[in-house]
Design goal:
With 201 residues, the protein is mainly α. It has 9 helices and 4 strands, in the order βαααββαααααβα. Helix content is 60%, strand content 6%.
Length: 201
């Protein structure tokens, strides 16, 4: 009998992203949070081999950093700068498009979008994401040894700090946005179970 992995609805994730105005961006991030939850469920229930588990950790780390990058990009896109170039407000996205992760961090520093401590931590896990191309791994280095449980736990903790800082500094409140506690995929996955096809019918 087929089995189905149940995950939190996109809408539940969407409702907690109260620091992002753009609805499409919230949609995209919500689906990636769902995917992260799926990865955790797979890890909890199926216990991958050591090498497969390491590459699954790599996938999760990449997802976390990509979500952070998207959130930063959205915040910077919405940022408006006074007196550039001549006494008016100008959206920062007119200054720079398609920025790289490192550039987003520098812009966030310059405009104090988030505190420096958080930005330094995010910069560190960004380096983990940069190892995505395994052709760049040194000849004497095993890629699956790089993505350790420690690096994953560190990334999870920094992601949580980043989200809490975003919620504290940049929460937008409108009549159609619910203010819920943020849903972290790992916590959701622990309560999930594998559903049979009959249970979903």
């Amino acid at each position: 009998m087929d089995e189905i992995i149940s995950v939190t609805s996109k809408r539940q994730y969407w409702d907690t992203l109260v620091f992002i105005n753009d609805y499409s961006t919230r949609d995209n991030i919500s689906y990636h949070l769902q995917y992260l939850e799926f990865c955790y469920v797979v890890n909890f229930y199926f216990t991958p081999s050591l090498t497969t588990g390491s590459l699954l950790r790599k996938t999760v780390i990449i997802e976390y950093v990509s979500i952070i990058e998207t959130i930063l990009d959205s915040m910077i896109f919405e940022l408006r700068v006074r007196d550039y170039p001549v006494g008016s407000f100008v959206g920062l996205h007119y200054l720079k498009k398609n920025t790289r992760f490192g550039e987003l961090l520098e812009i966030a520093r310059y405009y104090k979008i988030l505190n420096e401590d958080i930005l330094k931590k995010v910069e560190k896990i960004g380096e983990y994401r940069n190892r995505v191309h395994f052709k760049r791994v040194a000849r004497n280095e095993k890629e699956w040894d790089y993505y350790t449980d420690y690096k994953l736990t560190e990334t999870e903790n920094i992601f949580e700090e980043f989200i809490e800082e975003c919620r504290k500094r940049h929460r937008r409140l409108t009549s159609d946005v619910k203010v819920n506690d943020f849903i972290f995929p790992k916590n959701q996955a622990k309560g999930n179970r594998i559903l049979t096809e009959a249970e979903t019918a």
